[in-house]
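Appendix B, record 7
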Amino acid sequence: MRHPNFLDTTSSLLSLFLFITILVTSQIPLGFTGQAHSSNFTCIESERQALLQFRDSLTDESNRLSSWIGENYCSWDGISCNKVTGHVVKLDLCNSEQPGFEIYSHWYHCRSCLAGHQLSPSLVNLTNLRHLDLSLNNFSGIRIPTFLGLLKELRYLNLSDAGFVGEVPHHLGNLSHLRYLDIGVVLGGIIQNKLTSNDLEWVARLSSLETLSLNSVDLSGAQDVFNAINMLPLLKALDLEGCRLTIPHLLHVNSTSLSSLDLSANQFINPTIAPWLGNLTGLQDLNLRFCYLGGEVHDTFEQMGSLVKLNLYGNCFDTSTLKSICNISSLTSLQMTENNLQGSIPNEIALDICRNNLEGSLKSFATGILNLDLSRSAFAGNSS
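Structure tokens (predicted):
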């Protein structure tokens, strides 16, 4: 007769435990939600009005913001909120349908792009905003708003390929919690930013930054580019492609955390490889495409013992460079199309170059390089 009572007691305790667990975890903000249809918080009217004012400053030809109606703004497309407080923490208006362009004569019309001649500063009322993405839209002809520097809680800011023009506002340097900043262009983008920055002092103040993309931002007038970057102790990824930089041959770099670096389509003072690159021993991805480098590389590449991906497309390196590169045991991807690779392949070079468009008897070598492109290289002779 004791077994039923025991089972009943156990069942009751289990139910009580589950109830307490659900009650406790429901009070802990585990992130944010963009579909808070059953939220327990009261609408923060000032934030709802801020979003509506921002919406009204935009041209939305394809009705991407048609869900922005009613009281529950946390269910609106592109909005995410804190589960407990109801504060807006994420505004993601990236145009995921960018390829849908209509071509009229010599100009492009993007129906799916949000557009506008002036962005409403009402966003500053979103005091808990951590993530803002306006990329791949069409704000052609307007400057990056200075009020963005007032969004002090931002961790993520993406304004790439949104048609912004002019000088980058120094106010962005006030975003001391920012971890990700992209104000550049995306390869193949149609509505690109046309930005300049003559002083990168504002970048030096972004002490929490881990990813920085200034792709195609004109930095030709800036004298302090690398000094500013040296002030970013947590920086992991840096994209300076096409920034019209003149890169010094000798440089002190203390970016020990850097794992990805893109300096492509810039001019190096000396056409030989800069020796300071060898100090970036934690680098995994290096892009020097179209930098017109060549000559002796010594052991610069070999010093980068963590290098996994190397792009030297459109330079003047020869087979001696190829030999040096192939001593990097960690390398799995090498791009050397349109270099000065002529003559016969040295016997010491052992590569898996099957399925590459090479002439001669280069058919099957073996190493750890999984992705190699040496196409349009003038190889001849026998490698055996």
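Remarks on this record: Residues 17-39, 350-367 have pLDDT under 50 and may be disordered. The CA atoms of residues 103 and 112 lie 14 Å apart.
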